[in-house]
Design goal:
Blueprint lengths: L4 E2 H13 L12 H7 L2 H6 L2 E3 L32 E6 L4 E9 L6 H8 L2 H4 L11 E5 L2 E10 L2 E2 L8 H20 L2 E2 L8 E3 L36 E3 L6 E2 L12 E2 L17 H18 L2 E2 L5 H7 L10 H13 L3 H5 L3 E2 L4 H20 L11
Parallel strand pairs: 1-12
Antiparallel strand pairs: 2-3, 3-4, 4-6, 5-6, 7-9, 8-11, 9-10, 13-14
Helix pairs in contact: 6-7, 6-9, 7-8
């Protein structure tokens, strides 16, 4: 029998057993995942983290006392992921993310996350691991840990406006994975779902944590800038199956363990231990292939490097040091015209293309006139 583990299947089974499903549950009722958080509302409040009104034990659905439909109400928004919830930090009013971690299932997650949030590493620009503000256990639940992190968004939401914006994203991701590997940590699940961006400057008035296209009150669109106007930092999240190795272990091997990306060549029909760092190289390369090369126009310049990163033989993939060096060469070879060109979705029809190209050119002319760089750069 293969020893290969499918993490998604395990988690899905555990969540089904613990929290069930929200299918067919009326909006005025909490699903089992939400009940878990509501039952800890007071304890989290005492720790300084206030959950949204929906999870208060005294909650009364707002649509019951108004003329609104539940779909238009802030408290009608149900959690997307049962392990993660948003809260307001009462000390300063900042909205943060809380993650429930079962220490028995993921014994290394908190330690690795805190390692990269340590004083020695947190301030280093190349560090793109999600910051962790605090980790604590719940009363009477020694195996349950709550990790406090900033509120983030998926890395490709909102859409990229220009090639230059995407190039800066690639640079940060390569830099971040190189940083992790330099510190002997293999992420082991750094696919697109586990890449996020800091929306602080991009969305100055923030957004609703669940209905992310809406503002905080769910009564209008969440207004935002482009990444060219407000550069963003990208982060890797979810260290549930990550591992940290001693520097003396120069050639670690791990039994295959499935993350979110099911395309890893060395995991197919094999349970032989393999190099987790080479698998990371595949993951990040495959994320760029799937989200850009296959879905957008204009990224042909990335094809040769990505092809090397995702080749079947992990021994032939470049190390992240080499990938970073090669990407730097590619970036320096791109013209200003290329960098300022629009990111075009392959599914756009002619009407969409005309409308979006027109608005893009208006922005582009303004950016050039004001001397705004084609590749956004984070403030130093």
């Amino acid at each position: 029998m293969s020893r290969t583990v499918d993490v998604d299947a395990q988690i899905s089974q555990k969540m089904a057993e613990m929290w069930g499903t929200s299918d067919h549950i009326p909006p005025e009722e909490l699903d089992p995942r939400e009940v878990w958080w509501r039952n800890r509302y007071e304890q989290l409040s005492n720790r300084g983290y206030l959950l949204r009104p929906r999870y208060s034990p005294q909650w009364v659905p707002s649509w019951k006392t108004s003329n609104k439909e539940w779909t238009d109400c802030e408290d009608g928004k149900r959690l997307e992921f049962g392990q993660v919830i948003d809260a307001t930090r009462t000390s300063d009013g900042k909205v943060v993310t809380l993650k429930n971690i079962n220490r028995r299932d993921h014994p290394y997650e908190a330690d690795i996350a805190l390692y990269f949030s340590s004083r020695a590493l947190a301030s280093q620009p190349a560090n793109h691991c999600v910051p962790v503000y605090e980790v604590f256990t719940l009363d009477g639940e020694s195996d349950t840990m709550i990790m406090i992190m900033p509120l983030l968004r998926p890395y490709n939401n909102p859409n990229f406006d220009t090639i230059g914006e995407a190039v800066e994203c690639f640079r940060q991701l390569f830099e971040g994975l190189q940083f992790m590997h330099k510190h002997r940590v293999a992420h082991r699940d750094c696919m697109n779902r586990n890449i996020m961006l800091d929306p602080t400057y991009l969305y100055p008035e923030s957004f609703h944590p669940v209905a992310t296209t809406l503002n905080k009150n769910c009564n209008g669109d969440a207004k935002h800038f482009t990444r060219t106007q407000r550069p963003s930092k990208y982060y890797f999240i979810d260290f549930g199956i990550s591992r940290r190795y001693d520097p003396s272990d120069t050639n670690p091997k791990e039994v295959p363990i499935w993350g979110g990306d099911k395309d890893v060549p060395e995991f197919q029909n094999s349970d032989e231990p393999c190099d987790p760092f080479a698998t990371d190289v595949f993951y990040i390369g495959n994320a760029i292939k799937k989200d850009f090369i296959l879905e957008k126009r204009g990224f042909e310049f990335m094809k040769p490097l990505i092809a090397r990163m995702i080749q079947a033989d992990p021994n032939k993939r470049p190390k992240m040091d080499e990938a970073v060096a090669r990407f730097d060469e590619i970036q320096r070879g791109l013209s200003q015209r290329k960098l300022r060109s629009r990111v075009v979705d392959i599914r756009e029809d002619l009407f969409e293309r005309v409308v979006r190209t027109t608005s893009h050119w208006k922005r582009r002319i303004g950016f050039v006139a004001r001397g705004i760089p084609a590749i956004p750069s984070l403030p130093s």
